[in-house]
Amino acid sequence: MLILFSDDVLGGDFYNAAGVSLSWLLPFAVTKDYGIRTQLFGTAGNLINYDSQSSLADNARAWKNGLKTSAGVGLVVPTPIGRFELNLAQPLSTNDGERTKRLQIGLGYRFL
User: Fold this and answer.
1) What is the pLDDT of residue 75?
2) Residue 18's Cα: distance from chain center in Å?
3) pLDDT at 6 (0 to 100)
4) Per-domain residue ranges for the chain?
5) Predicted local distance difference test score (pLDDT) of residue 92
6) Cα separation of 49 and 51, whole Å?
7) Residue 89: beta bridge partners?
8) Could you read off the pLDDT of 41-75 as tens digits, one per residue?
9) Is the pTM of this model over 0.85?
10) Which of 44, 32, 9, 41 has the alpha carbon at shortest distance from 78?
11) What torsion do the CA atoms of 67, 51, 10, 3 make, to the nearest 10 degrees?
12) Which of 37, 34, 16, 15 lies closest to 25 in space, CA to CA?
C-alpha cells in the first residue's frame, strides 16, 4: 500500500506498509477440528512528513532510514464473527527510546 497526501494529516504525509504471513493447521486432532492455525509473519512500514524544501532523494532517504520492521508468531482461531489472533511479535528496527509492544490480540471481521 502506498499513499501520498497533498494536505497535512496527523502524523505525516507519506505512509506505506507491507506484510507477509505463512500459516498452517496445527497437527493435533482438536485443533484441526476447529480450524486453529499458527502463523509466522513479517511486517514493514513507515510514516514521514514530506519536506517540500528538500529534494526527492532526501525525502526518500528519510523514508528509508525510518523504516520499521518486525517479525513474529501467532495463533489464529476462526470464530463466527471473524478470526481471533494472539500474536507475539519482535520489533527488528526501532529508534532509541521508542515504546514497542510485543503481545497483540486482534479480532478481524470475516469479509473474504
Assistant:
1) 95
2) 7
3) 52
4) 2-109
5) 92
6) 6
7) 72
8) 999 998 888 888 889 898 888 888 888 899 999 99
9) no
10) 32
11) -60
12) 37
Whole-number Å distance between alpha carbons of 71 and 66: 17
Euclidean distance between CA atoms 18 and 45, whole angstroms: 6
Q: What's the pLDDT tens digit per position in 7-49?
A: 544 677 788 899 999 999 988 887 888 889 999 999 999 888 8
Angle formed at CA 37 by CA 32 and CA 40, multiple of 5 degrees: 150
E strands, the chain, are: 2-4, 14-25, 37-48, 68-79, 82-91, 103-109
Q: Are 13 and 4 in contact (CB under 8 A)?
A: yes
Q: Residue 11 has which C-alpha cell?
A: 502524523
* Residue 43: all three cell numbers together: 511486517
